[in-house]
Amino acid sequence: MGCTVLISACCGGLFIVGAQTAASEASDSASSAWAPLRSRAFRAVWLVTLAVNIGNWMQAVGAQWLIVGAPQADVLIALQQAAGMLPMLLVAVPAGVMADILDRRRLIIGVQLCTVAICAGLTMVTIDGTVHPGVLLAMQFALGVSVALSVPALGALTPDLVPGSQLTQASALGSISMNLSRAVGPAIAGLLIPRMGPASVFAADGLAVVMFVAVMLRLRLAHRPATRRPERFAAGLRAGARYIRHAPVVQRIMLHALLFLLPASALWALLPMFASRHLHLSVVGYGILLAALGVGAVLGALFQPRLRAALCGRRIALAAGATYACAVLVLACVQQPIVVAAALVPAGIAWVVALAHVNAEVQNVLPAWVRARGLAVYQVVIFGGQGIGALAWGFCSSQIGTRWTFVAAAGCLAAAVWAAWRQPLHDTTRMSHHPAAMWPEHPAVEVEPHPHAGPVLVVCRYHVATTDEDAFVAAMRDVGRSRQRTGANDWRLSRPLGTTGEFVETYALLSWDEHQRHIHDRNTAWEKSLQDRAASLAAGPPRVERFVAPGIHVYRSGSGTAESADDMRALDLVSAAG
Predict the structure, then answer these.
(1) Structure pTM?
(2) Do residues 405 and 331 touch, judged by C-beta distance below 8 A?
């Protein structure tokens, strides 16, 4: 017990020492790592978020310890972790769209009030120290849904709390909050559960959420008038999915994260069983092991900026993956609790450094207009990967034992490190995501179409010298992906029969509103550079024509397409040479 208190004190000491060091280096600079805490609103939100994160880890320990002695506990504990993480697969992306089109503060308050009710229910059903595993899993799933609904909205709220120049520091403080809670929460749970029972940690979690709601109710944000009407939910959902589908750079980042998370989740999923059955530790000892992981996580968050300055991103990712694999292998080979705790410290460091690397990459590569939805998909990968991995490793442990499962997980991590070495992330340093309109001038139209009128057909005609045709076609492939990322459907590049040196690019957008967003809101300097490179291979700028079908309703059926009377009209030409 004394060790638990000592570890908690060390965590707090690390946090204070880090803050004092940063403050001494840049006490008057807006670039200080702690500068966002000077904002009263951000400071209040950060502190209560830290309290909620600590409460979440406390209730996670309580939930795991309630079922550690049940039959098939390996599978039940894996299911419990999966129940808390898998809701991200179902809810995160719609939650990202909701965070863009609804009042984020009210959305967060409503979700957290539901969380308070869930925590109260958990406290009531576990007050005698027992609960049916099915009830516990259902409530853990409900808590996972509340987290999935809150994370995108809370992340999107940060720019309203701090200046734009401090967003990077605010993100780093969020990482420190998460990892500090990982060290402190299990330690506090180890003190409370033996004295007051598991219900005490659920009640403490609910109290922390009540404090969070109180702060959000007092929070006042400046009103920012919208430059364009908000997207509809379905259209916003399609736009986010379309961007990810046609962004190979983002896909590779998320694949790297998944390749690490699937095997790395074995440690988190099986640590309760390993502590209980192989190390013969009580809940206090299990709390110490989790606190050791948390200490490493805090150290990783504090030293990660220095590592990024000393090493390139590729080497950081490889070193973190190899370190984590070695730590998991140590757990498979030793039985001394003190050695296991020592191995968990570098594992915590590697965990934070690896995830911080891919997190920074995905934030840098996503443009502002789709950032909330892209980060929501990233959260699906993070939480879904951990949930699926926990479930798979739990079943594996029930068949071959915990130690051999750790060996298999270490082997999979080694394979992931090899794959990351052979297929590194794309260089994103040259990918500027500052807004850049595709065509500076608004299309010349006699009558402005209704925003929902459509579809809109865009036709671009290029004349290319014979010697440049191959290079032009290759460049247009990148342009096609760019068009589709920003809203286009059914993109094609064709050559008219009987002509030489002429190419026709065609693509469609669902509505006139989508067309306007495609031109003015969604293009970035990087997307514009791809279009300029292709245009430089043509003999002059393309001739652009746009067609719109206002008032047309097309009903598709299994036997064909039935059209209204308006469909008898040809598409109206609304813009000539672009």
Answers:
(1) 0.70
(2) no
